Amino acid sequence: MEKRSVQEVKPLPDYIIWLFYFRKLNKVCPWSYNSFLSGTTNFVDYREDLLLENETNWNQQSWEVIIYLMGDDYTLDDMDAITEHRNEVQNTCEYLWSHPSFSKGGNNQAPKRIIIQQDRARLMELRHGKKKESS
């Protein structure tokens, strides 16, 4: 019997991982997939000063959404506290978080720990439009 050679498994490129994620998320957040495909989703490593700067200058941003990659040092509670605080103290952006080990149902969690920054008014328009269409 001939032995098979062992091949090293290469990890998927980040683009493919995120493409699968946004495609899966499409059923609950259809505009996120389109934003990812059109290149209006920006991925950056999390820094509080950068998040605040982007929030302050949001109307000058060319991105529809900014995904902050949180790294392994941030817990669910940390991410929840950051997003809750930002959502309470300003009304320009809406913040959401996702963690690979936590799902609120539907198994729509992100493949990495992330905080999502979006335009609050635009997000409300999209949500309202979606509700109107399904009525």
Key traits:
single chain; 135 residues; alpha+beta; four-stranded mixed sheet; 5 helices; globular; disordered C terminus
Can you give a write-up of this model?
The chain is of the alpha+beta class and 135 residues long. It has one domain (14-134). The protein has helices at 14-25, 30-38, 48-56, 76-89, 120-134, and strands at 41-45, 65-69, 93-98, 114-119.
Q: Topology of this protein?
A:
Layout: H1 14-25, H2 30-38, E1 41-45, H3 48-56, E2 65-69, H4 76-89, E3 93-98, E4 114-119, H5 120-134
Parallel strand pairs: 1-2
Antiparallel strand pairs: 2-4, 3-4
Helix pairs in contact: 1-2
Count of domain modules: 1
Task: Tell me the fraction of residues in β-strands, as a range.
Answer: 15-25%
**H/E element sequence:** HHEHEHEEH
Alpha-carbon Rg, integer: 17 Å
Main sheet attributes: strand count, strand direction, barrel closure: 4 strands, mixed
Oligomer: single chain
Average pLDDT, all residues:
87
Shape: globular
- What helical percentage do the residues reach? 40-55%
Q: What order do the strands of the largest sheet run in, or round the barrel if closed? A: 1-2-4-3
Query: Which stretches are low in confidence, meaning pLDDT under 50 for 5 or more residues running?
Result: 131-135
Number of helices: 5
User: Which structural class do you get from the secondary structure elements?
Assistant: alpha+beta
User: Could you tell me how far the N terminus lies from the C terminus, measured between alpha carbons in angstroms?
Assistant: 64 Å
How many strand elements? 4
